[in-house]
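Researcher:
Attend to C-alpha cell order:
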Amino acid sequence: MKKSLVILTVSWALALLFASWTPLLGRSPLKKTDFSIHNDLWYYFDNREFAASGDYPLPSMTTHALVYAPTFEFSFAPSKGVRHALRVGAESAHDFGSLTWSDALREGLIWYQGSARARSGLFEAYAGVFPRTVMESNWSEAFFSDQHKFLDRNMEGLLLRWKSDSFLSELACDWMGMKGYDRKERFQILSAGSWKPTLGARCTDFFSAGWNVSYYHYSGSVVAPGVVDNGLGSLWAKLDAAPGASKWKEISLKAAILQGYHRDRTQSKKALLPTGGEIEAALAFMSLRLSNTLYYGGDQTPFYYGTDTAGNPYGEMLYFCQPLYSGLYDRVELNWEPRIGSNLHLRIGARAHFCAEGFLGWQQVVSLKADF
C-alpha cells in the first residue's frame, strides 16, 4: 500500500509540475492544453432480504460502502475535432461497519482517452484502467447485476466507441486476471450497440433496436486447470411512446431474445445453449419510474453451483448477472430519481423478485453519485 501511494504521489506531482511549467515554455506545439482535477464520489446501499425463499438462490445481505476516486487529467487538442487526454488517480473505498481503514486504497486508475470527430459521428478510445461507467450502452441484468457493477467498478483493457445521432457501437475487452499458481486467467469481450431511425432532420426515440454480446473466458490456474466459456448474446427492440415535452419521461416496452453458450471444457465435452426471452415495461413520470422485467426460458447460469477441478465454487466468479435468469423470473422495481443537477445523481428504489414458485425476496437500494 505504501509503495502504491508513493507511485501515485510522484505521478501527480510530475503532472502538476508539467502543467505549471507549460505557460513558461513559450509557444507550445500542443494547442488548447488543459489540466483539470476530477472528484468522483459514490455512496451505495443495497439491502437484500430473501428469507422468504430460504436465502436461495440469493442470500440475504447488505452492501453499504463509500467510494472516492480523484483523478488528474492532462489534455490537449492538436487539431480541430481531435482530443487526447491522460487521466491518473486512485480509487479508495470504505465498507461501512468495517473495523479498519487499512485496505481503503483499492486500485490505481490510469487511462488514455482519445477522440476524433468526423462529419458523420465521433470516434472514441479508452485504454488502461478506467471506470466501467464510461460505457454508454445499456445492459440487461442477464449480463450484469447492479451489485456487480458496483463491486467491480473498473475495467482493465480497451474500449472503442463510435457514435452518431442515430447509431452507437461499443467494443471492449476487460482483462481481469493473469494466470498464476492459484490465480485464474480471466477476460471478457463485450460488444453492444443501438440504432434509432431518423425522421426528417431529427432522430426519433419512438423506436430503437440493438444488440449486446458478452464472451467471458474463465481459464485455469496451476492448481486448478481447465477452461469454462460463458457467452451470452441478445437482440432487442424498444418502443417508447412518451411525449417528449410532457411530464411523462418514459412509456416503453422492450423485448429481447437471449442466446447463451456455456461450456466447461474439462468436465464436460457438451456445450449448453439455453434460449430465452426478456420483456421490460416501464413508466416514468417526473422523478418516479416503475418497471417490470419478465424473463422466460432456459437457465443462463447452468454452472453457478458447480466447482472447478480443485473444488472451488464457480458462483459469482463465473457469472456476473442476477443468478435468477432460469425458467420464469419476474422483477418489479420502483425508483425515485430527482433531478438535482448535472453533477449529482440520487436514486432511491425498491425491487421485488418472483419466480414460478412465487415470491423470492426484495431489495432496498440507495445510490448517490457526485461528479465534480
Summary: Residues 16 and 35 are 8 Å apart (CA to CA). Residues 131-336 form one domain. The radius of gyration is 22 Å.
